[in-house]
Amino acid sequence: MTDGQLQQIRGGLIVSCQARGDDPLRNPAIIAALSMSAVQGGAVGLRLEGLDDIRVVRSKVDVPVVGLWKVDLDSDVYITPTVWHARQVAETGASIVAVDGTARPRPDGEPLVRSIEAIHAAGALAMADVSTLEEGEAAEALGADVVSTTLSGYTPDSPQRDEPDLALVAALTEHLSVPVIAEGRYRTPAQAAQAIEARAWAVVVGTAITAPGWITRQFTRELDGVAKAAAPNPRPQQAGRKCAAGPSR
Ligand SMILES: CC(=O)N[C@H](C=O)[C@@H](O)[C@H](O)[C@H](O)COP(=O)(O)O
């Protein structure tokens, strides 16, 4: 990652293309198609999970990739949780490696700074995924090149809400010198624009763009509510009625 690439993503949209667990989209070829589609739509960067997805997508797109590896090691820290995972993601070709940037104990017992050093040694930039201003300040002091609000809403120290944490974006951009990325629950273009107005360097959007299951549920939930209240069509008494002189097709 060069300063030029950091400039390349400035003010833009980074699309997070991730599929995990039993998600039918979990297939590097599908993630690559989603990623290429996002780039066609104007995404300036991609956020990708897992070595296979990073490797395949890297061979197909030119935009900077924020890479991470979600691993469950019986710890609250699951985003690129150890120094070893950070090194693997960097060596797979991510321009920026996202790691858990909170102060919580990490499963390998190493401090955050060791992951940052490993990422730098592999020639990538380190993004600290944080949930509070204090975590962002600490991560910057340890050498993180970029700080993202990814974990706000997902730690006990941060507000639990459905909306994005724009207040944290504003606080981080006021107090930090490194670029601040707005991420987490940005569901509308207007919310993304608000983050840039709060001086975010870029905005990451995942679910609202690349999770058709979630998007579908927004529609079905709304329809379920209306369907209970509205009468069906055709109404039962009209269903058997003959049409007098309608056009025949
Ligand atoms: C908390 C956590 O693990 N966030 C993850 C980080 O990579 C992803 O699951 C999110 O999709 C990503 O942050 C984008 O956010 P949203 O999908 O809300 O636009």
From TrEMBL:
E.C. number(s) listed in UniProt: 5.1.3.9
Entry-linked Pfam families: NanE (PF04131)
Spans annotated as Disordered: 228-249
Origin superkingdom: Bacteria
4Fe-4S among keywords: no
Alphabetized GO MF terms: N-acylglucosamine-6-phosphate 2-epimerase activity
GO cellular component assignments: cytosol
Keyword field: Carbohydrate metabolism, Isomerase
Pathway field: Amino-sugar metabolism; N-acetylneuraminate degradation; D-fructose 6-phosphate from N-acetylneuraminate: step 3/5
Database matches in SUPFAM superfamilies: Ribulose-phoshate binding barrel
GO BP term, example: N-acetylmannosamine catabolic process
Annotated family: Belongs to the NanE family.
NCBIfam families documented for this protein: PRK01130.1
PANTHER family listed in its UniProt record: N-ACETYLMANNOSAMINE-6-PHOSPHATE 2-EPIMERASE-RELATED (PTHR36204)
Protein name per the record: Putative N-acetylmannosamine-6-phosphate 2-epimerase
Origin species: Kribbella italica
